[in-house]
Amino acid sequence: MLAGKTRAHFTAEQALMDREKYAGRTLHVIKHQYLLQQLDAFVTRFNSGSSRLNEHSLHFLSDWLTTHILKEDKNFALWLNEHGKY
């Protein structure tokens, strides 16, 4: 469920970046791909029973929230505002 919603969110966000010709799109998409790889690996381990929600998992989620959303996504939002897009 989390992985599916994450993919849908990233797809919509990347479409907005394309439409608005966001200069930072390439690096942002690379970061999305990395996050998805990490999430997929965790889901695979979790579903196989070889991993549980632990400190490493919580660190990954925390880093995602604090680094990606509060930095990368915020930079995109600021760029949109500075360019009169929204």
Number of strand elements = 0
Helix content: over 70%
Q: How big is the Rg?
A: 15 Å
| Tally of helical runs | 3
Number of domains: 1
Low-confidence stretches: none
Distance between the termini: 29 Å
Order of helices and strands: HHH
Structural class: mainly alpha
> β content, as a range?
under 5%
Task: Tag the structure with descriptive keywords.
mainly alpha, 3 helices
Descriptive overview:
The structure is a single chain. The chain has one domain (2-82). Helix 1 packs antiparallel against helix 2 and helix 2 packs antiparallel against helix 3. With 86 residues, it is mainly alpha-helical. The model has no long low-confidence stretch (mean pLDDT 90). It contains three helices and no strands.
Q: How is the topology of this model organized?
A:
Layout (H helix, E strand, L loop, with lengths): L1 H19 L4 H24 L6 H28 L4
Helix pairs in contact: 1-2, 2-3
Give the structure's gist in a few sentences.
The protein is mainly alpha-helical and 86 residues long.
